[in-house]
Specification:
about 170 residues, mainly alpha, Cytochrome Bc1 Complex, Chain D, domain 2, 2 domains, two-stranded antiparallel sheet, globular, binds heme C
């Protein structure tokens, strides 16, 4: 008698536990999915591309935690080597005692009138291919090597695409 009562208690406790777990996971599921009940897949992908591109731009680390490497003497500067560190948080370029960096908003880079350089000259507009080449090989849209401060970056093609998606959001 005593035994079966204990067993019953055990089963009851187990049942309460299971109900509890189900309830908690249901609530947390609701919380996770809260802002948009059914996100449009393509929109989500675009958002995460821009988010990853922004992470790369500001931290030189991608959303998988990979620290991006580069070659070049940019490394010798006593500063954090990120796109934002040299081109500014808004991408409009900077003037420092060591270098002048250009405006790398996508609109400027691909301007049909030609990309406007800090010295007032225009070079042929970039497209996504020549832009990737500039970032990874340090070659500008006319095929000339970029000055030494600009690092030559190593990153997967997906990260490059995301970085370009982010450059498009800079105004
Ligand atoms: C250490 C400073 C530094 C860092 C870090 C840096 N850049 Fe640059 N970048 C420069 C300078 C300086 C130039 C101009 C070089 C020239 O005019 O020859 C340049 C040029 C460029 C150009 C070519 C534009 C043109 O004038 O033709 C692009 C595109 C560019 N950078 C993108 C990036 C991106 C994207 C990142 C981050 C992944 C980055 N840069 C990180 C300093 C930097």
């Amino acid at each position: 008698m005593r035994r079966s009562r204990l067993a019953l208690l055990g089963i009851a406790a187990l049942a309460v536990g299971i109900v509890g777990i189900v309830a908690v996971s249901a609530v947390s599921g609701m919380l996770v999915g809260a802002p948009g009940a059914l996100p449009v897949p393509s929109q989500t992908a675009a958002n995460s591309a821009v988010a990853n591109g922004s992470l790369i731009y500001f931290t030189a680390t991608d959303s998988s935690g990979r620290a991006l490497t580069y070659q070049g003497r940019g490394m010798m500067m006593m500063m954090r080597v990120t796109c934002a560190g040299c081109h500014g948080p808004d991408g409009h370029g900077e003037q420092t005692p060591m270098f002048v960096s250009p405006n790398i908003t996508y609109a400027n880079l691909t301007s049909p009138a030609g990309m406007l350089e800090p010295n007032g000259e225009r070079i042929p507009p970039y497209n996504d291919e020549t832009l990737k080449r500039a970032i990874t090989q340090g070659i500008d849209s006319q095929g000339k090597p970029l000055d030494w401060p600009m690092p030559r970056w190593q990153m997967p093609d997906m990260d490059l695409d995301d970085l370009i998606a982010f450059l498009k959001t800079l105004k």
